[in-house]
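Quick board copy: two proteins, each given as sequence then tokens.
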Amino acid sequence: MKRALFATLLGLGLALPASADVTLKQTTGGKGMGLSANASGTTYIKGNKMRADIVVGDKTQTTIFDVDGQKMYSFDSKKKEADVWDMAAFAAELAKSVDVSSAKASLKANGQTKQIAGKAATGYDMEVSMQSAMAGSKDMTMTVMLSGPVWIVKNAPGSADVARFYKAAVDKGWIFSDPRGAKAQPGQAKAMAEMYKQIAESGGIPYETDVQIKMSGSGPLAGLMAKMGNVTMTTTTDSVEVGALADDLFTPPAGYKLNQKK
């Protein structure tokens, strides 16, 4: 769960005008749901593919998103095997639990500016809500709310490329977190995806985010889920580079065993 949340955190810094491959280095952290220490990570974007490497302790957790191939790969530096998810099938299954038409999202400039990593960033207030049936149960509905400030460097190099990636992915119903966690909390996964879409449309790269996740709803587990909410996630973008990336960076290493997941 902790690695899945860190992977989600990294995504906050990715929702980002000339076509190029993009590399972002970031620091993530948060409070709640086991989040305490910061983690460093690097994210790579090439066309409709993205790779996120997150360093937790002595292990690197890697997730590769291949939108055109409709595959998500997940593996770590300690094992020579990768989990493979059919994201077309997974998106269809997740859609049964989430009322996408219920989504409400806004990203509004708040009139503030500040310097972050030597860049002029504009402040925005973000709010996204989504309704879903918890773990597929129509008797237990949840509303997930994401809110908080986002500091965006407008027209940063690589912005258009990252925006295109997220648009392609969200249009196909993708999520950007561990599918196993998304099965248990589909509303949160879809709300995060909607958030990425909103930020991608801003025309810049978020250099700093501070997002709170809150949950409310009905049914016997609503109280428990409300306590599981109130998670704070932070992301700081330390650097952004534009330059060619090798194709093999976006596939599991040769010789890895591939485990098909559902």
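And the next:
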Amino acid sequence: MKTSAYRPKLSHLAMAFLALGATVAKADGTVNVVCGVQAEWCSAAATAFQRDSGIKVNMTNKSGGEVLAQLRAEANNPKVDVWFGGSGDPHLDAAATGLTDPYTSPRLKELHRWAQMEHEVSGGRAVGVYTGALGFSFNTELLAKKKLDAPKCWSDLVKSEWKGEVQIANPNSSSTAYIALASIVQVMGEEKAFEFLKKLHTNISSYPKSGVGPVKAVARGETMVGISFVHDAITEAQAKFPVGHTTPCEGTGYEIGAMSIIKGARNLENAKKFYDWALTPAAQTIAYQVAKQFQIQSNKATPAAPGAPKFSEIKFINYDVKKYGDPAERSRLLGKWEKDVNSLPR
């Protein structure tokens, strides 16, 4: 990089938690966390932190766009202390509009450069927790039945054989889809990108609310192709669904999954404890050991999950985190997509 339906049994969860050995001083009280990763990961992280710290975790699971809307609505009376996970762009939006507070964890020096960069770009109001590459998922059984080759490039997705067979989330609610939108603009240039998006629109069956929606639909055989993160496709394949994945030949973007402390957090000290804990290798190992997720984690000492994407084999663009995380640019692009693309008939 240039900054570069597994549900474990309770016995598996217990064994994994015992093996993690995260060290957090015992404390009292609660912490309210809104979580932007997969539900299994959210639940496992809450259980492990609560066990290790003695702090009760009130956890909710929402997409990046939903969290941002909630924080704006609750700005004068925040009900959330920590925002854990979800692509970094909405975290940067929240930072720029004063919805989150600066915090520098003593763990910052242990993190990969891309995770530290998220902290720098946000003015200390966010930090990188994991990263993942944007790509295509596809249902191998459906493709074989129709004798179709898997898409390998962005340009493949506008071909007639994919009419009504592609899904991507709505970028207004999904940070995954916003990264796809911003990536396509950077790959093609804005004018050509929006011409491409108009053509792609005619092949889209639906725009789900959540970024993981398209790959779930691919796994269920409801659509042939999804635009999503590669690690989500690997999770479905590991769960024995007929899901394959590729990354676009022209180049692709990536997410920096982030974490932020909410401005006016009611449980600030406990929020900091959760934040520091979430950056430890023991906490980050939960993603794979318990939730079977394949993102690359931010602590240098956290081992990569077996089967995780090999970033050295992916053609990445030099994704402009600062520009496309800026609230004004984000709002402009989303408005243009809504007016010029989503308003068109399919």
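Board note added afterward: The longest helix spans residues 327-342.
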